[in-house]
Amino acid sequence: MSNVFDESTLASVEAQLAATDQLLENAYPGDTGARQPVHTVYVPGDKFTGELPAAWGSNALAAAGDSAGLAKLAAKLNLAEPERLGELVAAKLVSEPIEDLRLDFEDGYGNRTDAEEDAAALSAADAVSAAVAAGQAPAYIGIRFKCFEAPTRARGIRTLDLFVSRLVANGGLPDGLRLTLPKVTTVAQVESMVFLAEKLEEAHGLEAGRIRFEVQVETPQVIIAADGTHPVATLIHAGKGRVSSLHYGTYDYSASLGVAAGYQSMEHPVADFAKDVMQVAVAGTGVELSDGSTNIIPAGDPENIAAAWELHARLVNRHLTRGIYQGWDMHENQLVTRYLATFAFFREGLQAAATRLRNYVHKIESAIMDEPATARALARYIHRGVTCGAVTSQEVTDLAQISLDELEAIALNRSHAN
Q1: In terms of residue numbers, what domain contains 189?
Q2: Please, what is the end-to-end C-alpha distance for the chain in angstroms?
Q3: What is the DSSP letter of 402?
Q4: Most buried among 108, 305, 343, 377, by the most CB within 10 A?
Q5: End residue of a domain, out of 323, 348, 373
Q6: pLDDT digits (tens, 9 = 90+) for 292-329
């Protein structure tokens, strides 16, 4: 019997790996368990009212033809359970048509006079505060301000200041506040955003770390820098826990690589490469990842609407199967296929995932031997489906034979989980 590894040997290894332990604990804390919206909707910064989400849902439902029309479209898209999908999506478009809304003061707003944008930023904050107070606001809401490149830096910072300060003056920041920093090219821009967040918290007496932000990846320099590094990974950690999500910007990024306008899309190879790097960068960090948008809008004549819906549904399914659980929607009619494709994704694999999870939890012998990491992935998949409304709690109980609390515990790897 070997006695080579004594207590001093173990102590030496512990000392050697202390930095690694700290890195894993601090830089890779894992899934936070926070709800990730299935999409982000963009509207011009001066166009938001509390009635907008409900109006978008109502208009989308009307465009599809209510529950029966949704079912017919689902069947045309070769989605399983078309009738059930029609019912669920119709209910979603009434109860929560928009999960995450961004009031855009960048590309969607354009360049106006400082006086105009000042007034719009304050008005937007007032509208958001009123919507939150009235229960009309989506779960997540906020603004995208102009980027930190030299020509727009001061304007973006001023809009951020006005919006956040006005929210505080109106009674406080919404729980689901989202702030989007666009066109990031360097880690230094993220560090500057951290500095500004700290200044806002100090000025308004907010809890340290209260202000977090999303980083929009729209330039190749943040994917591969001049020195060959990947700033998109570094910036997450330079954000000191404030970076909540990375969002891919389809058209700015594609254009910056010289892709002709007619070929720019969410599924172009340059897009896939960027998102592959982003996906690796966020792994284990608790930072979310979102795909971008398509500019092919389901509007106009019926043929165009049908073609755009087919394209959008395919693109949504594509990023879901790649493990990217969020994307952008730019038009109310895109809500139709956002939810049809998303709900279908979570329902089509429900039976198999729930059965495997049931077998794992209750130690039932089967032809598949799942390990804890796979059980967590199965539970997280089902949990996402429940959160967005694609799967009901009764279905979880019936199929997986566990409660929602047990499902969440496994999905988030809590200590009392199996």
Answers
A1: 39-348
A2: 34
A3: S
A4: 343
A5: 348
A6: 999 999 999 999 999 999 999 999 999 999 999 999 99
| pLDDT digit string, tens, across residues 144-179 | 999 999 999 999 999 999 999 999 999 999 999 999
Distance of alpha carbon 53 from alpha carbon 311, whole angstroms:
23
Q: What is the residue-wise DSSP string for 138-170?
A: -SEEEEEPPPSSTTTHHHHHHHHHHHHHHHHHT
Pick the closest to residue 271 from 247, 243, 307 (CA basis). 247
- Helix, strand, or coil here: 363? coil
Q: Is residue 330 a contact partner of residue 296, using CB atoms and an 8 Å limit?
A: no
Distance CA 42, CA 94 (A): 19
Q: Which of 71, 99, 75 is nearest to 87 (CA)?
A: 71
Alpha carbon 235 to its chain's center: 18
Under DSSP, the state recorded for 213 is E
State the pTM of this model.
0.94
Same domain, 174 and 148: yes
Q: Is residue 245 part of a domain?
A: yes
Closest among 315, 115, 117, 287 to 214, alpha carbons compared: 287
Residues 354 and 315 in one domain: no
Angstrom distances, CA of residue 52 to CA of 196, 245, 376: 30, 25, 37
Contacts of 14 (CB under 8 A, 6+ apart): none
Model confidence pLDDT, tens digit, residues 1-34:
567 888 999 999 999 999 999 999 999 998 888 8
223, 260 contact by CB (below 8 A): no
Q: Hunting for tokens 């967005």 — which residue is that?
A: 388
Answer whether residue 25 is part of any domain.
no
Structure tokens at 232: 């998109």
**Would you say 294 and 265 are in contact if contact means Cβ atoms under 8 Å apart?**
yes
DSSP letter at 97 equals S
| Cα angle for residues 301, 296, 308 (degrees, 5° grid) | 55
- Rounded to 5°, the CA angle 344-349-355 comes to 145
Torsion, CA 263, CA 267, CA 269, CA 270, rounded to 10: 80
Closest CA to 175 of 214, 208, 139: 139
Q: Are 366 and 359 in contact (CB under 8 A)?
A: yes
